[in-house]
Amino acid sequence: MDNNTVFHFNLTMYVNIGLYRYPAFVVSLMLFAIILFANLTIILVVSLEKTLHEPMYLFIALLSVNSLYGSTGFFPRFLLDLLSDTHLISRPACFTQIYIIYTYAFQEMTILSIMAYDRYVAVCDPLHYHNKVTAKTVYILAAFAWIFPVFFTVLGLSLAVKLPLCGNKLQKIYCAVWNIAKLSCVSTSTNNVVGIFVTVINVILPLIYVLYTYFRIILVCRKSTSEFKSKVFQTCLPHTILFVSLSFSIFCDIALSRLNVENLNPLFALILSLEFVLIPPLLKPLIYGLKLPEIQRNIFKMLSCLNFQI
Question: Coil, strand or helix: which one is 259?
Fold first, then answer.
């Protein structure tokens, strides 16, 4: 089968669950609705409440925007596949899905790295915080978080698009570059090198940077008062949980792409695949809504206003 004849890809990780597909569809639809509602709530609260127009909260809102972007790029197709007997996806739709999911993941890592910088300056250099993290700096960093990952995603995607393919079966529940590269009729050494480069830039380096910032924050906290430690812990814990969760999800997805899925338990492989696109978007609004008093207070304030109007 040559490259020009591969008009559709077959997502083979979907298993036949019979009538259980309908409860699975309902649960997935509810999760999608919760993700949309929760992240929209965070965005609205931060946008409407002037006291939250600070760098940390603006970056949290940016995370929620990215969650909406990634979730809407995955869930509609996933919901259709749950009800379908066949799981074919057209070539353009497949590469579009890859673009959305990869940019979502890389943007997530970039935003979390920027938030680590924000917390680092706030804790380790508080006297110069407002000089370093200005409104202009926030806008530049936000633009960087959206544009920078696009370049590397397009770089990897452009190489995958050109590969001559000798099959159309992808052992995934969504399209991925490495799974397409496995179908190549020719050597993918260039793709592998570029893939490693992209992973290092967008995953490994952010991970190292975040670990470095938290190491410096811990050193400062060791010499500080209990009240200061408590305040730092309160603002940094949500970010830490999200970053660990996302990093674990990304590394699981990378490992799953490299392994032979047929040798794994189908349910285990399915859970690992879903974790990457499900847990971070669901976790973010819950953690920030529950852990940060300012956001929590303004969410209740907004809800009480809505109840009063009704």
Answer: coil
Token pair belonging to 108 = 């997530």
- The alpha helices in 50-90, defined as continuous H runs, are 55-83
pTM for the whole thing? 0.88
Provide φ and ψ at 56, rounded to 5°: -60, -45
Place of tokens 């893939």: 195
Locate 89 and state its tokens: 């996806």
Minimal CA–CA distance to 168: which of 93, 97, 102, 89?
89
Q: Which stretches of the chain are DSSP H helices?
A: 21-48, 55-83, 91-124, 129-132, 135-161, 177-181, 189-199, 205-222, 226-258, 266-291, 293-309
| Residues 6 or more apart whose Cβ sits within 8 Å of residue 294 | 51, 52, 57
Query: Cα separation of 209 and 202, whole Å?
Result: 11
For residues 173 and 88, give the distance between their C-alpha atoms in angstroms, rounded to a whole number: 11
Distance CA 286, CA 217 (A): 25
Which residue in this structure is represented by tokens 């993700």?
35
Give residue-wise pLDDT tens across range 150-180. 999 999 899 988 888 888 888 888 888 888 8
Residue among 28, 280, 146, 302 at smallest CA distance from 288: 280
